Inverse folding.
């Protein structure tokens, strides 16, 4: 027996932009090859009824768990097999899904506009098996791409880039760099007391600024292309620094100029995360704590990047100053060793121990810098 899924249907070529205005409990029509964790988190938060993808939600090019995460959340996932009738992007028309067909109401009539492939455990296992088969070649290609571009872009890291004057305040300071990634908001929540401290300097990378503002944490700086940030957050009082690519283009600067918003520029290679990390390093920040920043092959493939040359160089350069806190929320439920001064039944969480570490160390780091 087939379940009928009903609701308004909304479509956009870019999932992150669709999520900015998507009403709750809608059906979404995406153009998103290999769904990534950030998109899936947003879809779950929007309580969508179903995901219909004009591209392949799970290609099998690499291992990913995001389609399964949607199914576990009770959200049906479909790929389009064939389209029968289509005029323009969907903007809230009433639609329903029945027996792997998509039906949309238009001008008082209901039409079957597409045939769908439904994801289930069998389909996912087949895709996972394909990803395992593809892994050796995929990994080799990723490494080759990384080494090739690292060699080409190495010169950018040898000398200090031209930095905006406001970044001088990072000298000798503890800096948190927050990037939007799978479950990064859980890490923000876990580290909330530390991030709210006046001594902490917070750099948000693009859309992570909205995630911080959701918890009433206003970043000191926002770095990136400014293409996934709400207008409200752009006007939160943070210093805006647009990523200018090596060819001189800066989509973020162009966007802000049209909005009448002032911003600084940094011309550099790589991703906006690389720009934020490199800028903090050359600004002589003393400690760099990373939240949500990407490090591995799968995370880069999810973003459509075939390698991580600049990221590899940026992390190599910042080296011992970096402490990566991505995924720290997972330590909440882990047992910890007893601490002297507590009863044997009182075991502090690792999170509380880390927060105490920051509270004790940040002032001492500042004193040493003054001396």
């Amino acid at each position: 027996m087939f379940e009928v899924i009903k609701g308004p249907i909304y479509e956009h070529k870019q999932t992150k932009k669709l999520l900015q205005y998507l009403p709750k409990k809608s059906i979404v029509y995406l153009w998103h090859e290999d769904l990534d964790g950030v998109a899936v988190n947003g879809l779950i938060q929007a309580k969508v009824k179903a995901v219909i993808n004009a591209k392949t939600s799970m290609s099998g090019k690499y291992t990913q768990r995001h389609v399964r995460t949607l199914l576990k959340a009770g959200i049906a996932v479909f790929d389009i097999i064939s389209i029968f009738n289509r005029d323009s992007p969907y903007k809230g028309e009433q639609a329903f899904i029945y027996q792997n067909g998509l039906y949309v109401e238009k001008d008082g009539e209901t039409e079957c506009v597409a045939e769908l492939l439904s994801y289930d455990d069998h389909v996912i296992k087949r895709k996972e098996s394909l990803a395992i088969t593809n892994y050796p070649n995929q990994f080799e290609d990723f490494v080759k791409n990384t080494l090739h571009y690292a060699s080409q872009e190495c010169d950018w890291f040898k000398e200090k880039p031209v930095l905006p004057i406001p970044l001088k305040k990072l000298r000798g300071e503890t800096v948190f760099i927050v990037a939007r990634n799978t479950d990064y908001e859980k890490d923000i929540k876990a580290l909330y007391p530390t991030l709210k401290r006046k001594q902490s300097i917070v750099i948000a990378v693009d859309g992570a600024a909205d995630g911080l503002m959701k918890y009433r944490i206003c970043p000191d700086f926002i770095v990136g292309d400014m293409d996934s940030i709400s207008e409200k957050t752009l006007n939160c009082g943070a210093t805006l620094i647009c990523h200018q690519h090596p060819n001189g283009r800066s989509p973020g600067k162009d966007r802000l100029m049209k909005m009448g918003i002032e911003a600084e520029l940094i011309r550099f290679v790589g991703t906006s995360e690389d720009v934020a990390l490199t800028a903090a390093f050359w600004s002589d920040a003393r400690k760099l704590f990373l939240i949500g920043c990407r490090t591995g092959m799968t995370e880069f493939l999810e973003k459509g990047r075939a390698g991580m040359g600049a990221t590899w160089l940026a992390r190599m350069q910042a080296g011992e100053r970096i402490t990566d806190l991505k995924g720290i929320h997972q330590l909440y439920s882990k047992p910890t060793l007893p601490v002297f001064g507590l009863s044997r039944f009182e075991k502090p969480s690792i999170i509380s121990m880390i927060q105490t570490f920051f509270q004790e160390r940040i002032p001492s780091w500042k004193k040493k810098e003054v001396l």
The mean pLDDT is 90. Residues 121-153 form the longest helix (33 residues). Residues 5-119 form a domain with the Aconitase; domain 4 fold (CATH 3.20.19.10).
